[in-house]
Specification:
By secondary structure, this protein is an alpha/beta fold. The protein has 9 helices and 6 strands; from the N terminus they run αβαβααβαβααβαβα. 41% of the residues lie in helices and 15% in strands. Strand 3, helix 5 and strand 4 form a beta-alpha-beta unit.
Length: 232
């Protein structure tokens, strides 16, 4: 569904990201659903060839359209990797195809994985730090991610607010309870990741203000989290 709209948004975003990076800016992208990462990566690839993506999300988003329920939202990584069945309109957005190889992606706090996604992770040897590993020690998990990221010229960080347990911080699009990080756990991990000297883009997705019991207070806390994550 909405393939043309998703493609157009990604193309427009890619152009903006390219311009910002050409001007030597670090970039904050606020979405939107997870498909906006396609535009971020496409834009970054016009400037950088050595590109790593830390994908902070409970979901892996490795479903090609044929394996989805019609929504492109959880197919983003499948299109970055150009998995069989990926839509040409999305997989072909960047100067190269696939946009990223399996070695270029690290899943962080992933837990909700379908059987098909699990097989893709196994066959392609995708790197992952699971949700329980992050919950047990957010700082150590982030240090592992930092070590992984050092081999790339440039790092993109994708933050899906769905990674937060809705019972702890109800601001995400997905209302899952009992599955995800607390705001404090996520904050600790992001604080550690800010030490990456090669980080260039932070993308934030799946924020739904309608779910906030107190919108002003929820956004005060979210903005505080992002300010801390982006601080030099």
């Amino acid at each position: 569904m909405n393939l043309e709209t998703v493609r157009n948004v990604a193309k427009e975003l890619a152009a903006v990201v390219t311009t910002a990076l050409d001007d030597e800016h670090n970039v904050l992208v606020v979405g939107g659903d997870c498909t906006i990462e396609l535009g971020v990566v496409a834009g970054a690839l016009t400037r950088y060839a050595s590109l790593g993506l830390i994908y902070i999300d409970v979901d892996a988003d490795l479903n090609p359209p044929v394996a989805s329920d019609g929504a492109l939202d959880w197919t983003g990584v499948a299109h970055l990797l150009d998995l069989p069945g990926a839509a040409n309109e999305l997989a072909g957005l960047a100067p190269r195809r696939p946009m990223l190889s399996a070695a270029d992606i690290l899943f962080f706090a992933v837990a909700n994985v379908t059987d098909g996604e699990a097989e893709t992770i196994r066959v392609r040897n995708l790197s992952m730090i699971g949700l329980q590993e992050v919950k047990s020690n957010p700082i150590e998990a982030a240090r592992r991610a930092t070590q992984w990221a050092r081999s790339f010229d440039t790092i993109l960080v994708h933050l899906d607010i769905d990674v937060l347990d809705f019972a702890d911080f109800p601001l995400a699009e997905n209302t899952r309870r009992g599955l995800g990080l607390t705001l404090e756990e996520l904050s600790a991990a992001l604080f550690e990741l800010r030490a990456l000297p090669n980080r260039r883009v932070l993308t934030v997705t799946e924020v739904n203000p309608d779910h906030a019991p107190d919108e002003a207070e929820s956004f005060r806390r979210l903005i505080g989290l992002l300010s801390q994550a982006l601080a030099e």
